[in-house]
């Protein structure tokens, strides 16, 4: 159990999340994701969570483990072509995790996802939350457009609206 991490999570409140992601930023992210979906048939979801509950922290849950849980909870796996991608931000840890469904995972390397995560984390470290998400969405869009190009008719199975947990 990491006491420093627990303390950090105890002090990150919903107010911190709202300050980093005010309503106009969330709307802009939603719009960016909708625009992204014009270039490919993949599905992108963005979720931000301020902090983990004490039970998860005391159990040693990592941001990656939580991202996998959120991937399931938000049903990002529930796409026609198994090409859903979750971008998860755990604000208290300043950690970005990308979880991709098996269709995408077979075509995009973990190194490519890791590079996107690190760049977003760098932007977030400078307080550039909206810019960081935009950059991440742009880079994910390029990957999805290469492997899952847009088709004539497109069903948008997942919501584009960011999830604030």
What features would you describe in this structure?
This protein has one domain: Diaminopimelate Epimerase, Chain A, domain 1, CATH 3.10.310.50. The protein is 52% helix and 13% strand. The chain is built from 8 helices and 4 strands. The longest helix is centred in the C-terminal third of the chain and has 19 residues. It starts with a helix and ends with a strand. The mean pLDDT is 93.
Topology summary:
Blueprint: H1 3-11, H2 14-20, H3 23-36, E1 43-49, H4 54-58, H5 63-73, E2 84-90, E3 95-100, H6 102-105, H7 110-125, H8 129-147, E4 163-164
Parallel strand pairs: 1-2, 1-4
Antiparallel strand pairs: 2-3
Helix pairs in contact: 3-8, 7-8
Give descriptors for this structure.
single chain; 4 strands; 4-stranded mixed β-sheet; 8 helices; about 160 residues; about 15% strand; alpha/beta; Diaminopimelate Epimerase, Chain A, domain 1
Brief digest:
This protein is an alpha/beta fold and 165 residues long. The chain has helices spanning 3-11, 14-20, 23-36, 54-58, 63-73, 102-105, 110-125, 129-147; strands at residues 43-49, 84-90, 95-100, 163-164.
Task: Please tally the β strands and state the result.
Answer: 4
What's the average pLDDT? Answer: 93
The helix content is 40-55%
Number of helices: 8
| H/E series | HHHEHHEEHHHE
| Main beta sheet | 4 strands, mixed
Strand content: 5-15%
Radius of gyration: 15 Å
Oligomer: single chain
Q: How many angstroms separate the termini?
A: 23 Å
- Whole-number tally of structural domains: 1
- CATH class, named Alpha Beta
Structural class: alpha/beta
Strand order, main sheet: write it out: 3-2-1-4
Q: Find the CATH topology.
A: Diaminopimelate Epimerase, Chain A, domain 1
Low-pLDDT windows of residues: none
In CATH, the architecture is Roll
Gross geometry: globular
